[in-house]
Write a structure and sequence with these properties.
This protein is mainly alpha-helical. The chain has helices spanning 9-46, 62-65, 70-82, 86-89, 91-108, 120-130, 133-147, and strands spanning 52-55, 58-61, 114-115, 118-119. The strands form two sheets. It has a two-stranded antiparallel ribbon with strand order 1-2.
Length: 155
């Protein structure tokens, strides 16, 4: 029988794997949140102070447009303020930006749900574990550089 603070080798391996996973999950989550935040902040800086747009039949000022989701901003606001239809010209990158925003939203606004004997947390953890960061970072760079030429330069 093991004493309270003794571990067998399987416990140590499991503990090491768990700690590595937690470290990865923390860093991945931070990267996802900051990547989406960078797109949102970039976009909000594009909005002129005196902007007034009609979206879904409602007049919108800068302060209300800043709170719109990226889908609305890229589809409806960007063509008006920059004359760029990113959705039409860069569909794959647009979809990647919307996908990473959804993952970010799921991380930030966790919901208690169960389906098919799995929780939404398990699905979310798998998404974060399997994420292709290069794909999302590249789409973010393409978006920013499409709107502002050479905004992000690579060395």
């Amino acid at each position: 029988k093991q004493k309270k603070n003794e571990y067998n080798s399987a416990d140590i391996i499991s503990k090491e794997k768990y700690e590595r996973f937690i470290d990865y999950f923390e860093k991945a989550t931070t990267a996802i949140i900051f990547l989406v935040t960078s797109v949102e902040a970039f976009f909000n800086q594009l909005l002129p102070d005196d902007i007034e747009l009609t979206i879904d039949g409602e007049s919108q000022s800068k302060s209300s447009l800043e709170w719109k989701d990226l889908k609305t901003k890229i589809k409806s606001v960007l063509p008006e303020i920059e004359k760029i239809n990113f959705l039409e010209t860069n569909l794959k990158d647009y979809n990647n930006i919307i996908e990473i925003q959804k993952i970010r939203n799921d991380l930030v606004h966790l919901k208690k749900e169960t389906f098919e004997n799995k929780t939404s947390y398990q699905e979310l953890i798998k998404k974060v574990h399997d994420i292709e960061f290069d794909k999302f970072v590249n789409s973010t760079k393409i978006f920013m550089n499409t709107v502002r030429k050479d905004f992000i330069e690579e060395e």
